[in-house]
Amino acid sequence: AGRPGPLAGGARPEAAGGGPRPGQEDFRPRIVPYSRDPNKPYKKVLRTRYIQTELGFHERLFVAVLTSKATLNTLAVAVNKTVAHHFPRLLYFTGLRSAKVPHGMVLVAHGDERPIWLMYETMHYIHQHFGSDYDWFYIMQDDTYAQAEQVKALVTHLSINQDVYLGRAEEFIGGDEQARYCHGGFGYLISRSLLLKLHPHLDSCRNEILSVRPDEWLGRCIIDFLGVACVSQLQGQHYHTYELAKNTEPEKEEVVEFQAALAVHPVSDVTLMYRLHKHFSRIQLDRAYQEIQELQMQIRNLTSLTPAGEAGLTWPVGINAPFLPKSRFEVISWDYFTEQHLFSCPDGSPKCELSGASKADVSEIIESALEQLNNRYQPLLRFSKRQLLNGYRRFDPTRGMEYTLDLLLEAVTQKGHSLVMAKRVSLVRPLSKVEIIPMPYVTEATRVQLVLPLTVQDLDFVANFLDMFAMNTLDTHDNALLTLLFIYHPYDAQRVSQVDVFAGVKAMVGELEKRYAEVKIPWISVKTEVPSQVKLMDIVSKKHPVDTLFFLASVWTEINMEFLNRCRMNTISNWQVFFPVHFQEFNPALVYRGEQTASSGTDFLRDGHFDRHSFAEACFYNSDYMTARTKLAADILDRDEVLESMEVFDVFLHYSGLHLFRAVEPGLVQKYALRSCNPRLSEELYHRCVLSNLEGLASRSHLAMALFEQEQANST
């Protein structure tokens, strides 16, 4: 038999002793059999919520900026505006803080301006609060400009298993030894393993090492106790720096060292910080465009070798091909626009004025088209815009926003001759890098307070609502409560002692409370001719704590645990409110016409539609409603009649800065019922109610079949 070769995946055979040889690690997985001692009581294993926590993954980079009370509102703010949004986590450390902390900055004040004490407290704070969460720690001063993207790219190429002390290596003052410390003005990088080993020695360093400069003190501490010196290059990666001279013009610096620098120091004033950021951003942008051109050239060269050949080359090169619809229902329509008007409006009107973000978008795309034309044809021709003849745009989810422009242009030659011509151009604004937006953490254990407004017209549907509520929440012990809101007409309210129109509902509630002894279902009686949703919610809001999670329901709603959990997860206090779009079943008399209804749980969605005209259901916290309602009250003063034209959705839309999450909810299904539309409400609310009834009758194909059968019956 021959000598065994390497195993698949890079693993090597074990030594003769049965284990890995000294200096080698065995990365092959082993199955550890699970066995439980029957004599010990069973204990439930608590798993972490995220697999990242259980596997011990760490975030990549933490950044600490050393500042002072004198420069907090100047240089530190400039650092925050230029690089803070590029780093995942950035904190500012100072000895003494000013009375007002700049907005958007997380500041840690140690209470002492002595440089050595500030460095000691900063290292201790970083270890205590972030030592177990991050792999790399980058420490810089507020008079340093650092290229954030370059620093992030640097740590991705370094191994986290070594003790790393990386920066601009400098000799100690008055020393002739070989060891070096990292100059604090140019920033330096410390690995997590080095920080963990350094922490036990910080107190000794503070008491035994005397130094004027905090970066020298830290370097001496690391060298004396850990034997690790500062290096400027490691594992093939270089930490490039550049020292600025006085009165330097960043735009005129052309030396290679400056262009390749990760950190620049000293930055004497705020204006210079912004100029450096503009200069290096332009360098990175030029590099990105150059890389794009090189990649596009490689794609063109390789396309001829593919089975589709050059015919498979998409435009623009490197961008996904346009979406190909499989049926006429998947065709993405184009929206027509001019420089003044948009002919596909959000409110459904055929024509509206071009304004806001849409106007800025059209202006920018026209300027980009002219810039591209001039870059292609200059110096032979120079184009200027006369008029936008036609504009079309559509959003393709596979590639981005597409534009087609018909431009009336004036072309001027090198000799000064001009010619007016019409030219069609096509442009694409591709989808950029997708980012995950951080959201506050919520749980599914929050209690939901259901609020059900009831009028006389709703009495026929209350029994089904209470049955579904009992089956899906009370029987399953879901953490949900119910409050009924009886809306009496003034005439019915006068006769309530003789004939109570809601007596039957109150009897049903009494039966539920007898069946479930621990459940109490309170009700509130209101007398009004115009049941404004906002006025009703004002009454309910005052009777519940501020941390209550409300679910504003309708009598046709069928409550289930699946939706209640989504209500909890999609509603975030002081951050987001949830307005689900319920699924409305069609009129069975028109859809089935005497045939058997669909019995399969997956087929019912074909027999209805998502009612986008209804805003009756909503999930929100009482505190958020009270805050928005206070702003509304200050705006309308004592004009309460304005509330009759508003819904809770309008209150949050116009008077809160919260996210309004509006999404289809397949778990919220409503049986068909003809809603009664109150003509005393505003014209818009009444119109929406009528539209909801009309569109909820049946689909166009069902209506066409019903008309056809009716005509057939009339003709015979």
UniProtKB/TrEMBL annotation:
GO terms for molecular function: glucuronosyl-N-acetylgalactosaminyl-proteoglycan 4-beta-N-acetylgalactosaminyltransferase activity; N-acetylgalactosaminyl-proteoglycan 3-beta-glucuronosyltransferase activity. InterPro entries: Chond_GalNAc, CS_glycosyltransferase. Residues 1-38 are annotated as: Disordered. PANTHER family: CHONDROITIN SULFATE GLUCURONYLTRANSFERASE (PTHR12369:SF14), CHONDROITIN SYNTHASE (PTHR12369). Signal peptide: none annotated. The gene is Chpf2. It comes from Heliornis fulica (sungrebe). It is a single-pass type II membrane protein. Pfam families: CHGN. This is Hexosyltransferase.
